[in-house]
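Marked as duplicate of an earlier ticket. Keeping the data here for the record.
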Amino acid sequence: MGKVWFVGAGPGAEDLLTLRGARLIGEADVVIWARSLVNEEVLRHVRPEAEIVESTTIPLEGVRDLYEWAVREDLKVARVHSGDPSLYGAVMEQIELCEELGLEWEIVPGVSSLGAAAAAIGRELTVPEVSQSVILTRRASRTPMPDGEDIASFAAHGTTMAIFLSAAKPRALQEDLISGGYAPETPCAVVYRATWPDEEVIECPLHELADRIRDAGFTRQALILVGPGLAAGGTRSHLYSPAFSHMFRKAEGEDHASP
């Protein structure tokens, strides 16, 4: 029957590939990867006799041919995705294809570029009493957005927003964010190619966002973070407060006797 593993390869750095992902790439008979998105160093886990397919120029129809081959020859396939397959991974149509062909499949999670970007700027995205929600979204482009999911509508919430695939039109993005409700001084961060050797980070107020992205020349592979939670400060978390009790710890001054 064969099987496909959709492996999240992480944001860029080869050592952010998970142990499970590395093991399954090493067990695969066929490894499919995109040079434009995935660090070539992940291929060092491929066994010498495995087939490596570079998929940058292959449409879904070409992938179908590979999956049909896996069915015929009972092959194990590692389909390597950048970041985590659950976020803008174009994985659903491949899953539907696997099910149509009777090909077993499994998703192997990876480190998202969102976590890598937050690490790059040294910020927690959910700051107590400042921002406890994160909206993951993108601007409409050749792929339209569903009704009600435009940038301005999300900006009205005023929480942290992580904006993928949207660096190509920074002026329009900035205008949407401000018209939606963010103040011009709202802190922003742009992380280009997080964890790659050429990673770059820009931090600026929202009213400078478009100019800073244009000056840097970023048009792709940049994640944009916006929201008051990106600024330093906030209320101390209850998690480590001596005055806060939970099922594993009593608060200071509470009776520790058994009920």
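See parent ticket for discussion. The CA atoms of residues 184 and 208 lie 8 Å apart.
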